Amino acid sequence: MKRLAAGNWKMNGSSASMAEVQALLGQHPNPSCEMLLCPPATLVAQMAWAAKSSALLVGGQDCHANASGAHTGDVSAAMLKDAGASHVILGHSERRADHHETNLLVNQKTISAWSAGLCAIVCVGETEAERDAGVTLSLISDQLAGSIPDGATSENLVIAYEPVWAIGTGRTPTLVQIGEVHDHIRAQLTARFGSNAAEMRLLYGGSVKPSNAAEIFAVPNVDGALVGGASLKAADFGAIVAALSI
Ligand code: PEP
Fold first, then answer.
1. Among 1, 186, 204, 206, which has the minimal tally of Cβ within 10 Å of its Cβ?
2. 216 lines ligand 1 (CB under 6 A)
3. CATH: 3.20.20.70, 3.40.50.2300, 3.30.420.60, 3.40.50.300. Which one for 4-245?
């Protein structure tokens, strides 16, 4: 399995940010892990053009569940594909919170992504209150069961475990807590998808930075990271890619 370093630029970036892409490509012309950046929809085509013939993959941060139609302001999976994307992040906790996205909607969006030929990065994770209540593993089981359609393979699905309380806060779970959840996700996927699940990438996300990346990547069943803030600067994201390429 090739591990994956994925960056989520969220609602950040402009044409000028392509300089960071060039800097990243200068550092890692051919990393031994996969390297993906998901800029805002406005930059997908431009980034895909900048990354042409390089090892950098480009993805979207969301797509509509429908292929086309009267959905003002939305972007379809086919449009992302047409713009040069290979992946799309779905069910990020910020979308689940800001846009009331349910597991069912994430499931429908995943089907749409697959129809367009995109690999879906489906996000799951507990809030701090849910962790304190001791329901983390059962909540994650529900999110996986509800958000992932039948037909998942290691080519069309990546899971990102992102504790909501760790996103953008500088706080991270202990390595034991990360390992416990990743083992649980692997077991759930294996129960449903059989031996295929061994090759599905499980990313950890939530305040990953150059200083903690290596220890997180050493946790069994962590196959890479989904990185927010630290993916905006080539120096930081490049250091995370380097930690994963070891
Ligand atoms: C994210 O938004 O997916 C994320 C993990 O953010 P950060 O790395 O900034 O915590």
1. 1
2. no
3. 3.20.20.70
